[in-house]
Amino acid sequence: MLLPAIGQDRAQRLVQYLEHSSYKVRLKAAIQIGRLRIRQAAPALKKSLSDDNDLVRAAAAYSLGQLGDQSYRKDLITLLKDPKTLLNKAATKALKALDRAQKTRPMYLVVLNDPILVPGAGKGLAKRLKRILKRDLAENTMMVLSEGEHEVLSGQKLSSHLKARGLKGISIRPKLTTLSVKKSSDSTTFKCKISIMVLRLLNKRMEFDGSGEAEATVEQTDMDPDTMDDIQRQLVDAAVKAAREEVVSYLARRTGP
Predict the structure, then answer these.
(1) How far is residue 243's CA from residue 193's CA, in Å, rounded to a whole number?
(2) Helical H runs in 81-224?
(3) Could you give the CA distance from residue 165 to residue 160 in angstroms, rounded to a whole number?
(4) Class of the CATH-defined domain 7-101
(5) Looking at the domain 108-253, which fold is it?
(6) Where residue 206 falls among pLDDT bands split at 50, 70, 90?
(7) Residue 85 pLDDT more than 70?
(8) Per-domain residue ranges for the chain?
(9) pTM of the entire predicted model
(10) Does the N-terminal or the C-terminal CB of the chain have fewer CB atoms within 10 Å?
């Protein structure tokens, strides 16, 4: 079935066709949106991922990948766990298209785990540590952060998925190993040490352990809690940066699967 001519308002018409009663029209509309790179139609394609016809769902997934909008990665992950080969393959192709849409094609799919903390460290520091690390890793062109691929796929399926996308799977596990405050007669010394373990995603084998340290001495002993917390946050930031730089340097020269 041929779609009617759509003239100047083709984007709006194609979006409307995604709601057509005929799956053939919906299918052609989904395909055309991807081919024509009609980016404003992305929200409608997202909705079509739940279409009652698998061909339309697969076409919508692949077209989302062609549009290159990285914010739709998580929506595509839901199709990866579908038992139907048509759908999980379409999701893999779409994610690969999103990988290629980046300025530099990534080398690694990175899983960022929750930080391990020393006793007494507040949850706020853990959130800060992970937030900083997630931001920095997301900005690195070698990497694409997992949006849940490792949660819906495992074993051979995850291995095949990584191979199809041309990526190596890495798991990152940060650990706050030291966070101390030591007071003397006239000063207070703060210390922070963070390690970032790099493990292979498929077999969990540890490959590298990057570390970062930061220290500050303040000529004061009667600081208020807010000031002390602020100093600790600054030290966490500095230690994370140092450890992250070691990890990035290692991954840049790393060889192997």
Answers:
(1) 9
(2) 85-101, 123-139, 149-152, 155-165
(3) 9
(4) mainly alpha
(5) Double Stranded RNA Binding Domain (3.30.160)
(6) very high
(7) yes
(8) 7-101, 108-253
(9) 0.87
(10) N
